[in-house]
Amino acid sequence: MSVEVPPLFAGLCDDAAVFPPGNLPLADAVPAHAQHRAAAYAPMVGAFVLAAKDLEGLASLVASLAPRSFRLSLTVPLRHVAAAVGYVDEIAAAQLESVEVALPDDARPAEVVPSLERALGDRSVPVFVELPRDERRAKLVDALSGTGLMAKLRTGGVRADLYPDESELAAAVASLAAAGVPFKATAGLHHALRNTDRQTGFEQHGFLNLLTASGAVLDGAGVDELANLLADRDGTRVADRVRTLSAEVRNTFRSFGTCSITEPVEELAGLGLIDTRLTEDLA
Question: Whole-model pTM?
């Protein structure tokens, strides 16, 4: 008998294996992604995340696949969006699931939406705009509101200063919810729970903490409460909160990029949130 993935976790984990700290070579990451997509936990696996500069290398690796069978999320600088999405059209196997847009340091919030509309034309594709961590953030959130465009929150990186603290991340989640702007998260969410990385000493957010905070903000929680949820390291307590969440919370928190697909699967099973039989393909 097949084992189902709970709707709350469907498509939650975007495969960012080629990005730090995983840095898996593209030639290894593509077949590994295919294995994930064939595993019992496949419904949890989202798109394959790739930088636009690496599209040429992808083309030959997926040439033998069925048309539009390779689900791709493309990270691309704002000024290169039009050219990059056009290139994807030339890769027969690639299905563009979403575009993740990085802004230049001098980008003006009021210019972002018009620039994307010009670049995309009549194309209908989900777009996530990475929010800057400076005074432009609030104006950009306002600009995205009501447009159908979404946000991308950077929750970590290769340096400690790239990790927003609980209060900063809580404020970002609250502002996006108030504006009705869904988001995805990227970088630093290496574990289900808030933790201190043993190797680097970095304070890392947990993807389940972010999920529970996303649920709480929809119920009216304020920034201080969200920050407390983001800071919680108690697995039993966090897992109990997750069990109360409706799958509707995923309309707000769409997905997160992870350089390891297997670790989130294992940790969710360890917390009793998915059936352990979903991990059998990991053996």
Answer: 0.95
